[in-house]
Every structure is written in structure tokens, then in C-alpha cells.
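From the methods appendix. Each design record in this collection lists the discretized structure first, followed by the designed amino acid sequence. Records were kept in a plain field format so they could be parsed without special tools. The example shown here is representative of the layout used throughout.

RECORD:
C-ALPHA CELLS (78 positions):
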């Protein structure tokens, strides 16, 4: 699956899109665990969001193999 990454998350994975191997649908929480195992910097990042089909996803959202997935970096502002 091709996964889009933006800002700091793009720097962590090295490019965008990045290929993530999935053989079945998984939850966003499981997807984040997979990312953190593959790229340890995500654990240190603390907060980042996952978007599925252009909508922010909760941890229980199911990611299907045909979905568009994006990793959204933490947003700061003032």
C-alpha cells in the first residue's frame, strides 16, 4: 500500500509516498504500531494522526487495502 506522509513524518519515512506492506485490513491503532516498529522515530514523535480517505481516523477505524492513507504530523500554532 502506498501511504502519503507530510512534513516531519515525510522526513521520518524518507519519502512520500512510502510503501507499507499489508496483507489484510487493520485498525489505525495496529497501523501505528506497525509504523513505530518500522520507524522508531514515530514513538518519539508522540502525537501524529492518520487520515483514511481524506478524513482523520480514530484508533478503531479500519484501514482496507484499497484505502488512501496519510500520516499527518503534529500541528502547532499560536
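DESIGN:
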Amino acid at each position: 500500500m502506498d501511504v502519503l506522509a507530510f512534513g516531519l513524518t515525510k522526513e521520518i519515512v524518507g519519502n512520500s509516498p512510502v510503501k507499507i506492506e499489508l496483507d489484510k485490513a487493520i485498525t489505525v491503532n495496529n497501523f501505528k504500531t506497525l509504523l513505530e516498529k518500522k520507524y522508531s522515530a514515530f514513538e518519539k514523535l508522540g502525537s501524529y494522526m492518520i487520515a483514511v480517505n481524506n478524513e482523520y481516523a480514530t484508533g478503531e477505524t479500519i484501514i482496507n487495502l484499497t484505502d488512501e492513507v496519510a500520516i499527518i504530523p503534529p500541528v502547532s500554532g499560536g
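APPENDIX NOTE: The chain has three helices and seven strands.
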